[in-house]
User: Fold this.
Amino acid sequence: MTEAAGALAARIRDIAGPEPVEVGMVLGSGLGHLAAAVEGVAIPYADLPGFPHAGVSGHSATLAIGRMEGRRVAIFGGREHYYERGRADAMRLPLTVLKGLGADRLILTNAAGSLVPEVPPGGLMLLADHINFSGLNPLIGEPTDARFVPMTAAHDPDLRAALRAAAAAEGIALAEGVYAWYSGPSFETPAEIRAIRRLGADAVGMSTVPEVILARFLGLKVAAISVITNMGAGLSDEAISHDHTKAMAPLGAAKLERVLRRWLREAGEAQTR
Assistant:
């Protein structure tokens, strides 16, 4: 851990208490309200030097630390995207701090476009894998051999199985598919959507992949769930916009919260058996 990350972790423990964090979560566009469900403290990113500004509407620039369903969690109410300042590694410091707080698991969420008609807006998609279509990487410039991160099982199979079980227990459909990362901020063209469908993508978005790479670099187990807010360009007549994304996100957010709460409860019960 870097000196800056260590100092921030110590500062956060002074505010939130010394108990180690078990699970971290990063919330996507329109999903920031989930951080309010944490029984604990909310720390503005502005009070944590080096944390991203999360300047996209629909994101909450706060770190919530406390209890949810009996587990000690740290929830990032928003993320910085590559398209904001041209930094693929924008979330490296926050995730390094998360690791320093004791977490060994990370759940990522995002708002995404679906490329398969079976998963319409309002649905959820668990990511089985991803395609880094942007070609960008948050580890460019890392000087050590740790940069050569294997990505064969980047989306942890055990976490995915547990999330599928939680969704099934709640009676919530949870599709599974491959997510393609475009840099944004412009939405994809119909031709680009046709291209990534042929490459095997099932959903498309502007985030998450850098954090998956960083999580594996840091030794965190990671899983990600997309809330589907629209169909990809050319697959429907809907008008795609960020306002549309924010308006549609709540349709899936309530289901996502139920899945995550059930998963946290089940994880806690498994530890007590």
Remarks:
- The domain at 3-272 is CATH 3.40.50.1580 (Rossmann fold).
